[in-house]
Every structure is written in C-alpha cells, then in structure tokens.
Amino acid sequence: MWRYTFLVAILLGSLFVYGYMYYTAWALCNVPISYAIGQVDDEFDFSRDRFTEAVSSAVMVWEASTGRKLFKKNENDKNAVQINLVFDDRQAYVEAEIGYRERLDATESVSQSLRKHYQRLVTEYENLRDTHELLLANYNEEVREFNELIEFYNQEGGVSDETYRSLQTEQTRLANERESLRVMERDINQLVKSINELGEQGNLLIETHNQGVGEYNKNFGESRKFTQGEYLGSVINIYTFTSEQELVLVLAHELGHALGIEHVPGRESIMYELLGEQPEDLSLSEYDMEAFVSVCVELPWWDRLVRKIFSFILT
C-alpha cells in the first residue's frame, strides 16, 4: 500500500517536473531574435536602406502589438537571422504583369479621355446644328417675305426712292445673314469631320486595348501561387512583392515564423496562409495574438502544469 502510494507520488512528481520543463521550453520563444540585412539584389531597384526600413516596419508590427522587444538588428552576430531580398523568376513575372497592366490602364485612360472629347464634340455639333436649323428656317421665311414684297411692288409699277433704299438695305442684311449661315455650315462640317476622325481613333484604340486584354489574359490570366517569402531557420528570403506595403506584410509574416508561430485562421491575420486581405494599417489580429501568447508568453507554473495534464489526458 505504501509502496503503491510512493510510486504514485514519484510519478506525479515526475509529471510535474517534465510538465514544467516541457511548457517552459514550449511557451518561451528566445527573444529578442537577432537579425541582419543580408543579400539585397539590384534587380529589385529597391535600395538597401529602403529594405532595412521595411524590415524595421515589419518588426514594429509585432512589437507595437505585443509591447515586447522581440527583435534586434545586430549585423555582428554570426547567429543572427539573415534577411535577404532575392530576385528570381517570381518577381520578374510579377513586374512583367504589373508593367502590362499599367500599359492597359494607360490605354484605357486615353480611351476614356478620347470618349469624353468625342462626346463634347458631338454635343457641340448637335447644339450648332440645332441653332443652324432654326436660323436657316427663319432666314428662309424672311427671304420668302422679301420676295413677296418685291413681287407686290413690281405689280404696282415700281417704288419710291426711299422704299427702294429700304429694300436694298434689307437685301444686304439677308445676304449677310446667308453668309453667316454658310460660315456656320462650314463649322458644322468641320465638326463632323473631327468627330469622324476621333471616332476612328477611338475605335482603333479600343481594338488595340481589347487585343492587349486578350494577350494579358493569355499570359497572366491563370492564377499562380508564389512563395513570396520563406523562413529557413537562420534565413528569411523575400522573393516577390508588388508594393512597399506588401513587402512589410510579407516580412512581418516571415518574422512571425521566426518566432515559432505557424499559420493561423482569419483572412486579416498577418499569419494567415494567404496574403491580400490584411488591412493597410497592419496590426496583429486576435488569432495572431493567441498564437503569439501560445509560443512566446511564460505562463504561471500551475497553468503550465494544468495544460500539460490536460494534454496528457487527451492524448
């Protein structure tokens, strides 16, 4: 009986000791982690200083949210995690896609500008045409009335000098009005010519743009999954990014792996397996914090023991 009790006591004691050692090792990440800026390939057209600033920003994402000093830059520490910016076919693909998309956007912008200009010309033409039709109808009516008046005076056998001068003045006015209508007609014809030319340019531009969209879809339409970065124990390699903000996000993600944190749920989480839906103002999500606490926060010894016992029972 005593021997059995003693044996149980030893087992429990061993469980306590190993549980304590297990959770101490499991719950405490070795921080601050030393890091150094390593390779920064020139093909990125991204200076070493800018890359260093991006790394510092990624570090602050973790330290600001946790309130702890988790990383320190130490170029002299031979055991420091080397953070590299490595250019390969992934970034070349991304840059080619961005360049193609920018050209398509530029074509679309020009097309929209032409469309607006075209619409302005059409509106100007319609207004001028309507005005011309109104003036022409009024002119024709005045000419008809003038001719009827001339015919009347001819049937009467003539007119006085004063009436004759008045008729000459009216005839001159009608001639000037007709000339103004001819000028307006020339302007209308020129507008029609400009509209047609602009329409041809717009159609050609639309055709070119549509061809470009087809080529873009052919070359870049299929979704490709890239490893934008990876943590390899003593090295963090960053391979591709589309903006400085995305670079900071990729760096923060890989720094999380350096802390020992795996992927977590929540599309807005920094440690989510896919990047793209995280907010612009980067901060740790609830899932990120839970993962951080699980690997980097020391628990009271009793909590560690309870967790170990429950883990032992459940397994």
Q: Which terms would index this structure?
A:
315 residues, five-stranded mixed beta sheet, rod-shaped, disordered N terminus, Helix Hairpins, 2 domains, alpha/beta, Collagenase (Catalytic Domain)
Low-confidence stretches at least 5 residues in length (pLDDT < 50)?
1-27
* Count of structural domains: 2
Main-sheet strand order equals: 2-1-3-5-4
Can you summarize the main beta sheet? 5 strands, mixed
**CATH A-level architecture of the largest domain:** 3-Layer(aba) Sandwich
- Output the radius of gyration: 41 Å
Helical content stands at: 55-70%
N- and C-termini, Cα separation = 29 Å
Mean pLDDT: 84
**Count the helices. How many?**
7
How many individual β-strands? 5
Strand content: 5-15%
User: Would you tell me the structural class of the helices and strands?
Assistant: alpha/beta
Shape: rod-shaped
SSE string, helices as H and strands as E = HEHEEHHEEHHH
